[in-house]
Write a structure and sequence with these properties.
Two copies of one chain form a homodimer. With 712 residues, chain A is of the alpha+beta class. Among the domains of chain A are: 153-298, Butyryl-CoA Dehydrogenase, subunit A, domain 2; 475-642, Butyryl-CoA Dehydrogenase, subunit A, domain 3. In chain A, 57% of the residues lie in helices and 9% in strands. In chain A, strands 1, 2, 3, 5, 6 and 9 form a six-stranded mixed β-sheet that branches. The first copy, chain A, has a three-stranded antiparallel β-sheet with strand order 4-8-7, with no helix packed on it. The longest helix of chain A is centred in the middle third of the chain and has 32 residues, at 356-387. Mean pLDDT of chain A is 91; it is low at 1-22 and 706-712. Strand 14 of chain A pairs parallel with strand 6 (217-227) of chain B, so a sheet runs across the interface. Chains A, B: Residues 307-466 form the Acyl-CoA oxidase C-alpha1 domain.
Chain lengths: 712, 712
């Protein structure tokens, strides 16, 4: 199925209620839809078609045991499609196409987020760890079973006691030169591996992360391939094979969502792992126990190993954007059909999307979803260029990791906010499972804290921003440095005194349109957003300066005291990335009407950020109060301008009824509304309509000549 | 169980990690706990003890069919406790104690929100409708079965096509004088009753709302008592009795939460209802079909009938506050025990609650929960004074309805935000059902849109604010009016020009402490919050003035164009109500240390509102940028000051492990942390600890005399 046919499926049989005003720009939905499929359009379209096949749908209301088996069966079906193998080497049946692989993988979220994440565990984490941390010999030996799902695997990194701080995990793998084996051991309860997909029931092997100790030296975290269940053993009541000797574990049980995945815990009691099963790309141990690594620095080695697994974050960014689109597509369709209360007309009820609050709560997130979409496209490019080897430099890797962290943290937050908002925008109907949104929210919930807790990720981003900031001053002469400081100080002073504000105010006096036009200018938006990131970073850097010469305790406390600002600066950076990606994408749109509408969408996104952070712009003198006052009213105008295009904008995402699977987005609501209106029209026409007491009393009052003030 | 013993249960066996600095104020947790039990302390404590009994707990992971039957059984157990009857007349076994009834009822949310809401359907809606809309004869005849649950009932008001706009429901009840019956009929699909608790399986009767038509006049919405299932019939596979002739329906199926309630749809095909079963307090029909009502105005009659059911909103406000407290109590306990990353110490990991972002994300909501608590106490007082008849005036009723709408809308929003934040603050553990928060979030989700959609409720509040604003000018002479307008305009101008800002800036120059001290002053906070509400209302009123003389269409469009500001003004009003309630409550605290800490909590709440709306204060010249700059840093100081009291502040809410029922809030985390630290301490002491490669390399570099800049 192509995007074009998807689009037709969305709108056919149920005409969209909103109609453009004549002469206005129109979105060419088919063209936009094609454009949005992006660089790997065919792969993405094929994966989307797969997600729309009933065999891959989530069956709501299944007990977790049934749901888990259902998803496992779907995974076997996916193996048949081989799309899931694209990232792997050609000699093993793959296509060495990491970007195309992710483009398709992300689409699975529309089928069932449990399927996406369980597939992510198998092919994105377990198999990828073998691929990226293993040697070619290990690929040949271990990947085929992982790829074809004959060996379902767990990715045993996180421990109950250590989530984000992987470097501090407690599991140890101590080399024994006598037997040429590692002894894998869990020394205490907090070091149990936890939250591992596949671990509760299905996994027969795991990639286990442990502190590698040899010759009494701890070389830090390394990965080991470890069989954990006996494939020849007898299954228990839950369908699980027996653990191998020394291995134990338990089921994480019911979760807030993603119950199609059997998350569980694992622990190891002196389990022996052959030397050959240390995934040895970044560190190996020879027979007598001598450790060797192509990367000397233990710190850099650790981050390189972890960095090779960045694709999880990249794909969560994409999946989160998709889930947001699904929620918005459902809510916008419903808001375009659902009527409630009479507004301007005495008999016709108003559609929800014409209400001031409703327009705002849905159209602003549409703009953000577009921005997040284009930013994700750029991230996918960057990911592909590094992992395909097209441009695999340390700088590109660092950019990729920073960008993935920034976007994953913001888009998963956005998905949760948007799904909550869309669910509420659908009222009681939004709460019914048949309308999908609550299930999506429940499943997406954990995206905010897994594959890197969002708060921790944003700190990583902030540290990078600080590093880049400091690098500007590297090798600078003391004299030049002094000048920079003075310039910056006077710049700050200018912003903070009423001078700049006064200038803006003068320029805008009596001319609200000029102020608004100013805001619409792309360069102004860029300047406002860029300036905010740079100023925040500079300000935090300034505040953290004493840390350089302080003792570690004081430095840590100082850093902690500025954690909130650091995270906020990182968020601002992510917002700017999205805005830039959106702006860049505009130039690729050929159809003029589409480009015009999308430019308004971009403006809406940019201005919504300025409105969101208006206090900052005012506090720091970047906007005069006169100019700031126009932000909200201008935003309202943009929303009104986009109102007629709302349905087109969500249709262009290319998700049909087979993806939305929400009764209220199936045309059922329109049918009900039409039936009710027909009923009342017929009743009025028939002459049998009862008179209303209200209008009778009004008539009575008129007859008695009594004024409206008469009380009854 | 008393609150005191609850409190001991919470902290016994697991000492709180935070300790006050010597000499600082301390919270007397027991005293505060007693104070928070409020006016109906014994009833509340008894209900809380009930909620803590295992028989009333939610069993997680039950399929909806099992969960529904489980909750029904729990309801029968509740009947035995008779607390649920307190609102009913004494002659029927009640206590005519509406306030005490709700105080207890709200606590059920800690057992299982499904139980709370299903109990609310039976006794708060179905039975209450009979009580408030029926005549004494109808009470005697219909209430006993409703009260003792021999007649499980549905409250059939909402229709698929009409949620918030009850006046427009499509179901009709047309009087037939021949048989002295009403003919109850559903004319189209949109008029099916929907989302009705008890309707899918358990209800054998319903209070059905329909447009009452007699003698060809539609007298608007009235309520009818209607048997819907045959108690003598045979149960189907789902345990449901057969529908009576003419009645049909279907199951709403799985929902995003509250799956212990069997929500369903009902429809009626010319079902005959005896004249005696019109609940006739506010409107009756005599044998020949003549309609009579004690309230002449159909509009006022409608709002009086609906207003008599306000207790649902009141109790949701209380339940939402309780759910927020449960989430915070779990997350704060965990954040006080969970350690991650080393901070200031090289070996000891930091507890989460010491991190800058974590402190803020949990301690600010603690302050808001206190504010919401005290505001709810006031609402309960107001509710009791009206419904017990102590002070049942139209003005009091109007205040009650406005306050209930304002607080329900803000506390249900707060509960969802807080449960989301606390779930994320607990990382992956927060996503496990065994840690409770996700289930609470799923259940509370619908609180935002049922018993009045929050957006609609906030508009009701805004309309009242506009009405009150207009009333100020009632009977005013044109001359005086002109002066008021001029004064207001010059006042506005003063705020908007740099004059007032300049004055503040001058006052604060070089004295950050003075600016902060100013913000701490209660009168300043009150002025800032009050001024914001009043100014927003005045501004919207001004903008809506042309609507008075405009045609209905223009007026409706104008109103809609300002809907966002109206809702925002209503929210500001709710925030002020909470702040005032909190401030008033401070004076009732006898223990000095407790009062001092709670005053800081109140300041934190007040200042967090100012920070949240800082853009407004800046835009409208209420704060100079100099003064506004101190808001966040002062807030940070308040958070730091409250950090050592965080555990006490959540403990004082009086929810023990039997209410929290979260493994991570059971002391298990502390045990794990202690075990891990003991392990490492022993390892270091034993001399068997492997050397780390990192420190070896550092030592190597030092020996080689190479600088830190040397790359490995």
């Amino acid at each position: 199925m192509t995007a074009t046919s998807d689009r037709r499926a969305t709108t056919s049989g149920a005409p969209v209620t909103s109609v453009d005003a004549p002469g206005e720009a129109r979105v060419d939905v088919d063209e936009l839809s094609s454009l949005l499929l992006g660089r790997w359009a065919d792969l993405r379209a094929a994966a989307r078609a797969t997600a729309g096949e009933e065999a891959f749908w989530r069956v709501e209301g299944q007990p977790k045991e049934v749901h888990r088996e259902h998803v496992l069966e779907q995974m076997h079906l996916l193996v048949g499609k081989q799309q899931v193998w694209r990232a792997f080497p050609e000699r093993l049946g793959g296509a060495n196409d990491p970007g195309g692989n992710l483009a398709g993988f992300e689409e699975l979220v529309a089928a069932d987020p449990s399927l996406q994440i369980k597939a992510g565990v198998q092919w994105g984490l377990f198999s990828s760890a073998i691929l990226h941390l293993g040697l070619p010999e290990q690929h040949d030996r271990l990947l085929p079973g992982a790829m074809d799902l004959s060996v379902p695997g767990a990715f045993a990194m996180t421990e109950t006691g250590h989530g984000s701080d992987v470097a501090s995990i407690g599991t140890t793998a101590t080399y024994d030169p006598q037997s040429e084996e590692f002894v894998l051991h869990t020394p205490f309860r907090g070091a149990w591996k936890d939250y591992l997909g596949n671990a509760a029931v299905h996994a027969t092997a795991a990639v286990v992360f442990a502190q590698l100790v040899t010759k009494n030296v701890d070389h830090g975290v390394h990965a080991f391939y470890v069989p954990i269940r006996d494939p020849q053993g007898e299954r228990d009541a839950h369908g699980a094979l027996p653990f191998l000797p020394g291995v134990g574990g338990e089921d994480d049980g019911q979760k807030g969502g993603l119950n199609g995945i059997d998350n569980g815990r694992l622990h190891f009691d002196h389990v022996r792992v052959p030397r050959a099963d240390l995934l040895a790309r970044y560190g190996s141990v020879d027979a007598d126990g001598t450790y060797e690594s192509p990367i000397d620095s233990p710190g850099r080695r650790f981050f390189t190993m972890l960095g090779s697994l960045v694709q999880g974050r990249v794909s969560l960014d994409g999946a989160a954007v998709t889930a947001s689109k699904l929620g918005l597509a459902i809510a916008v369709r419903y808001a375009n059909e659902r009527r409630q209360f009479t507004g301007a007309s005495p008999t016709e009820e108003m559609v929800l999307l014409d209400y001031g609050t409703h327009k705002r709560r849905l159209i602003v997130p549409i703009a953000e979803a577009y921005a997040a979409h284009f930013a994700h496209d750029r991230l996918l490019d960057l990911f592909h260029s590094v992992f395909s080897g097209e441009e695999d430099t340390p700088e590109q890797r660092e950019d990729l990791e920073t960008t993935a962290a920034a976007l994953k943290a913001t888009s998963t937050r956005f998905a949760l906010d948007t799904l909550q908002e869309t669910r509420e925008a659908c009222g009681g109907a939004g709460f019914l499972t048949e309308n999908r949104i609550t299930s999506l929210h429940a499943d997406m919930d954990v995206y905010a804290t897994f594959e890197g807790d969002n708060t921790v990720l944003l700190q990583l981003v902030a540290k990078r921003l600080l590093k880049d900031y400091a690098a500007q001053f590297k090798g600078i002469t003391p004299g030049r440095m002094a000048r920079v400081v003075v310039e910056r100080a006077s710049d700050m002073a200018l912003h903070r005194t009423p001078l700049k504000r006064a200038a803006q105010a003068l320029a805008d006096v009596g001319d609200v349109r000029r102020a608004a036009g100013h805001l619409r200018d792309a360069e102004t938006q860029r300047e406002l957003l860029t300036d905010r990131v740079e100023s925040m970073v500079a300000e935090v850097a300034q505040a953290l300066r004493p840390a350089q010469k302080a003792d570690p305790e004081t430095a840590a406390n100082l850093f902690n005291a500025h954690q909130v600002e650091l995270v906020e600066a990182a968020r601002a950076h992510a917002e700017l990335l999205r805005w830039e990606a959106f702006t860049q994408a505009l130039s690729t749109i050929e159809d003029e009407g589409t480009r015009e509408v999308l430019t308004t969408v971009r403006d809406l996104y940019g201005l919504s950020l300025v409105e969101r952070h208006l206090d900052w712009y005012l506090l720091n003198g970047r906007l005069s109060t006169q100019r700031a006052r126009t932000v909200t009213s201008y935003l309202d105008r943009l929303i009104d301008r986009l109102r007629p295009h709302a349905q087109d904008l969500v249709d262009a995402w290319g998700y049909g009824p087979e993806h939305l699977r929400a009764k209220i987005a199936s045309g059922a609501e329109k049918q009900r509304q039409d039936e009710a209106r027909d009923y009342y029209r017929r009743l009025r026409a028939s002459g049998d309509e009862p008179l209303s007491e209200k209008s009778l009393r009004k008539a009575e009052r008129a007859t008695n000549g009594s004024s409206v003030a008469t009380r009854h």
